[in-house]
Design a protein that fits this description.
Radius of gyration: 30 Å
Low-confidence stretches: 1-6, 8-20
Strand order of the largest sheet: 1-24-10-5-6-7-9-2
CATH topology of one domain: Aminopeptidase
Distance between the termini: 22 Å
Structural class: alpha/beta
CATH class of one domain: Alpha Beta
Largest sheet: 8 strands, mixed
CATH superfamily of one domain: Zn peptidases
Amino acid sequence: MFVTLISLLLCISSAMCATQDSAVRSLVYTDINVNSYDKCARLMNGTSQIGCQSTLEGDVGVLFHVNQSDDISKVITGKHPPYIVLIHADYFSKASVKLYQSSGKVRGILVYSNENYTGRLSGWSPELKCPRQHYGLYNSTYGSNYAKCENNPWNPIGDGLTEEDINFPIFIMKNDTASQMMIDCHDQHNLDGDYPLCAAQMKSRMDGAQSTETCIRRNNLQNNLSPAQYCDVIGGHTIVGTLQATNSSTENPKPVILITSALDSRSFEMTSSSPGANSLTGFVSLLAVAQALGSLNNTVKDNMPYDIIFVLFDGEAFDNMGSVRMVYDMSKDSFPFKKKEGKWQPRRINISQIKYIIEIGQVGHINKTAYLHFDPLSASNSSIRTDVSAIIGALKTSGASASIKFRNQSGDNGLIPSSLQSILKAGNVSGIVITDFDKKYTNRYYNSRFDTPDKLGIKLDGNTTESYALPLIQPLAQKIVNLSNAIAKAVYRLATNQALSTIHRNEDEITKILYCYYYNPKCGLVRSLLDSNIKKYSYVFNQYVGVYSSNMRNNAYIARNLLAYFLRTEETTIVNKTDQCKSQYAQDEIYKYLAFKRNTTYECLRFTVYDTDGRSPSAAISNYNYAGGAYSAWSESRWQKTAFHLSIFLVQDSVSQGMILFCGLLMFFSSFIIMYIIHKKSHILFQHSQI
C-alpha cells in the first residue's frame, strides 16, 4: 500500500511537471530565436579539427559585456566566473578568443553589432596571412623561400581564426532586438556585481570530432541499432565548359587554352555568412569572357587551332580542393569524364595538352589597373618563359583598347595562392593569375562575413529592389566587362594570332548577374534560368561550398546555367514541355540541353557545359592514408535539429541556490515521512465499515 501511494505521488508530480514545464521555463528563461544568430560549426581535416563545440547540454555563464578595448582583459579578473562574453564585433579576434580559451573562465562568446555595421574600418580577416599554404606549390624542395610568406604576407591583416580549435560555442548575433535584450539584461543586473546576475546558456553540440579519418570510420561502423552519421565530406562540383564542341574520338586533339576561376569562399561562421563579394567577381568575370567569346559564330569557333575551355572550381577555399581533383582526374585520363564504351563523349584533357592558363582571381577593386602573377621558378624554363610572355603581351595589347592597364607582379614573392599552384605541382604549364592587387590583398575583409558588396562601392542603403539597385551596381559591372573584354581579346589573339576587332559587350546582363548573386536570388534572370526550381532560392547565395551532394549547390547550379547560356550553340528550338528538350541520340554525351522558360513555351538550348566531381582525391581513393596527407580531407560535422540553443536567465548566488536546494530536499523527504505516518496509521485514519 505504501509503495503504491508513493508511486502514485511520483506519477502525479511528474505529470504536473510535464504539463507545466513550458510555462515554468518561460518564467525562468528567455529563449533567443535560433535564426537570430550565425553559428561557428565544427570542421575536420585529415588529422585534426577546427571550429567550435559546446558540451552536451550546453555551456552556462554569467554575461560579461565587452564594448571597449579596456574590457577585453577584465573578463579574466572578474568575480563571478564562468562567463559568457557578449563582445562587440570591433573587439572580436583570434587574440581575444585565445585569451578567453586559455583562461578557463569563459564558456562561450556572443558577438554583436548593429545591423548596419559593415566591419571595423581597419579591416578584419579570419583567414591565414598565407592562405591555402598547406597544400600549395612551394615547399622545402621547391621554392623554399616562398613556402612561408610571413615576411611578405599576401593577407597581412589575417589572424587565422578560421584554423583554430575552440572548445566553447561562438554565435554571431544578426538581430538587433536580441542583442539589445542581452545588453539590457546585463546592464540591469550585472553592473553592480550583486545577485541576481544575468546569465546565458549556449548550446552548439556537434556530432563529429577529432579528424575526418576518425569521423569517417565512425560513419562506417553504423548498424541497425546505431544508424547515425557523424560527418559529411566537404566538396562541390567542378564546372567545365568548352567554347566549341569536342569529341573524344579525335585522333589529334587541339592544344588547350584554359580559363579558370573559383566559385567559392569561406568565413569563420560558415553556416550562413560567407558572402565572398570580391571573390565572386572572379567567376563573374569568367562568365563575361564566356559571354564575349560565346557570341562568335560557330564557324569561327570551330576553325580555331586551340580548344578554349572554361573551368569553375568549387572548394578552392579549402586547400584548392577543386583544382587538385581536376589534376588527379587528368592523371587518370578521366577529366572531365571517364571513358564510356559506346558513348559519344567530349575530349578528355591531360596536363601535357594545356598550352596556356589564364586564371581570374579577386578583381573587384580594379581601378583601370590589373596585376599579372606567375611562378618565377617555372618561368625560368625558356619555353615556359616564352609562353608566359606571350600571355602577358596579348593581355597588355588587348588592355590598351579596353581602358585596362596590365602590370606584372613586382617584388619576389612567388605565385599568389591560386588554383594555378595546384596545376603547376603536376607539371610545367604556362599560366598567369589576374587580380586587383600586387604584393598584398586589397580586400581587407578576405574570407570574412564583411566581404560584402558595399566594400566594392555598392551602397544601397537597405533598398534592394531591382530597379533601384541595378544603376548602383552598373559601375562595378562596367569594370568587370572592360576587364573581361580585354581577356577575351587576348585569348582570341593567343588562339588565332589575330586581333579581334569587335566583340560582344552586354553590361546589362553582367549587372543583373551581380544583382542576383549579391542581393536577390529570385531575380528575373534566375527565374528565366530555373523556372520551377525558383522556390529553392529564398536567400542570398552562400559562397561556402558545403558538404558534397550529387545535386549542385545553389551557387554552382546557377553558374552552370549561366555558362551554358553564354556558350550555347546557335541551334535553338522551341518546345512545349521541358522533357522534349533533349538529344535524339541516346549515346550523345557531347551536347547537353536545357529548357529556358519563355512565356508559355520553352527555348531549348544546346551547349557543351558539364559538371564533374570536385571533391578532394582523398574521397576517391580506397583506404586513403590520411596520416600521409597527400591530399586534403575536409569534412563537416553533422548536428541535430536541437543542436543550437541560446537563452538568458537570472542566476542567484551559491548560498541562495544552496538554500533553495535544501528547502526542496526538505519538502521532498518530509513528504515521504508524512506518507509513512499515514501508512502506519491507516487503520485508524481509514476505518473500514462492515457491509
